[in-house]
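Materials and Methods. Structural model of dTTP/UTP pyrophosphatase. The 191-residue sequence of dTTP/UTP pyrophosphatase from Croceibacterium xixiisoli was retrieved and submitted for structure prediction as follows.
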Amino acid sequence: MNAPQLILASASPRRRELIARLGTIALRIEPADIDETPLKAELPRDYATRMAREKALALPQGAEHVLAGDTVVACGRRILPKAEDGDTARKCLELLSGRRHQVLSAIALRAPDGKLRERLSVTEVRFKRLSDEEIRDYLAGGEWEGKAGGYAIQGSAEGLIAGISGSHSGVVGLPLFETRALLKSAGFALG
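The predicted structure was written out as tokens:
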């Protein structure tokens, strides 16, 4: 029997790097193109799960498994945007300063027969109280560009985080514990 094949429905280089940590998997990259607008009054948990599911289902059905994920930074019931400009990143960091927030990282695995498996990782992150200078210095580095909540934990922002409870890889963009469990349940041979 041939080993299962996997399509990663993401253009994220971080997700590619993270999945490589799980071992050798025949991997093809095919980003899913979907509307990522939250629904009115949609809760962060529901939004993350829906996005991962819709990405997994967006690619044509074939002989491969499709793995998709979505990572959401939430402050209470509020879904923080991906920072596309410095002003948005600053507003996110000012909101997160000195507070706890959640990072929800949902994954969905669609089998060739259409069966869908899903998992959700919830991680609590706490930023130190950030000074204007710390925010300005962080923004000058540019790591915030395109990042949910305006920061990348795998970069210099990690030095501004006072605590984390949950999955570090989930905050980066792909919760490896949950991903490994899904892939193993689908017959992937992982170490």
